[in-house]
Amino acid sequence: PQGSEEAKVFVHALLRRSMPQVKDEAIQDMLTRKALVLEYYPKKKTKQKRKKVKGFTAKQRRELRLFEIEPEQQRYAIFLPLHELWKQYIRDLCHGLKPDAQPHMIQSKLLKADLHGAIVTVTKSKCPSYVGITGIILQEFKHVFKIITKEDKLKVVPKLNNVFSLEIDGFISYIYGSKFLLRASERSAKKFKLKGTIDL
């Protein structure tokens, strides 16, 4: 057991440690009141700044040829399973593409759908050489589609001034490329107008 003097020293030292910002006179004043509430001052933690993970720039992607399809991979048969996956994706998206489904509802879903794997045909174009090109969409960019044809040729078809047709389960949809100048990620969030001037 501690004596009264030792207890006094112990309490005083404890208070000094617990309340480093309080002066001795204030501590002594608190002790005379016989009731004391100890305060706790936690150490301030220094926040570590998170390093932002930077992706590749467009120039670096071009240099690394990330989006280029190698010539030996440019074969129509390789991408047929992708087309089958796309058809299943569209059927799920449109709840089965039933005969009684409203065409404008399906059209609105197709406008926002991912078209990688879809078979499209250029039906109208200001450039006659594009008309009749049919194939699977391998890549969609803001201004062009990259399409692989049955002849195993990779075609780069601009969206501008071209009309594309897309058929699935008997439902034919037309894509007016001039109104479609968006990246696939941007298109999913865009609100398309149902009415408007349709022209090449």
Automatic annotation (TrEMBL):
Q: What is this protein called?
A: Ribonuclease P protein subunit p29
Which Pfam families would you find in this protein's record?
RNase_P-MRP_p29 (PF01868)
Q: What's the gene?
A: Pop4
Q: Which family does it belong to?
A: Belongs to the eukaryotic/archaeal RNase P protein component 1 family.
Q: Which GO terms describe its molecular function?
A: ribonuclease P RNA binding
Instruction: Summarize the protein's role.
Output: Component of ribonuclease P, a ribonucleoprotein complex that generates mature tRNA molecules by cleaving their 5'-ends.
Task: Supply one GO BP term.
Answer: rRNA processing
Going by the UniProt record, its keywords in alphabetical order are: Nucleus, Phosphoprotein, tRNA processing
Against Gene3D superfamilies, the record matches this protein to: Ribonuclease P/MRP, subunit p29 (2.30.30.210)
Q: State where the protein is found.
A: Nucleus, Nucleolus
The annotated subunit structure for this chain is: Component of nuclear RNase P and RNase MRP ribonucleoproteins. RNase P consists of a catalytic RNA moiety and 10 different protein chains; POP1, POP4, POP5, POP7, RPP14, RPP21, RPP25, RPP30, RPP38 and RPP40. Within the RNase P complex, POP1, POP7 and RPP25 form the 'finger' subcomplex, POP5, RPP14, RPP40 and homodimeric RPP30 form the 'palm' subcomplex, and RPP21, POP4 and RPP38 form the 'wrist' subcomplex. All subunits of the RNase P complex interact with the catalytic RNA. Several subunits of RNase P are also part of the RNase MRP complex.
Output the Gene Ontology cellular-component terms.
nucleolus; ribonuclease MRP complex; ribonuclease P complex
User: Which InterPro entries does the protein's record reference?
Assistant: RNase_P/MRP_Rpp29-subunit, RNase_P/MRP_Rpp29_sf, Rof/RNase_P-like, Rpp29/RNP1
Q: What is its main location?
A: nucleus
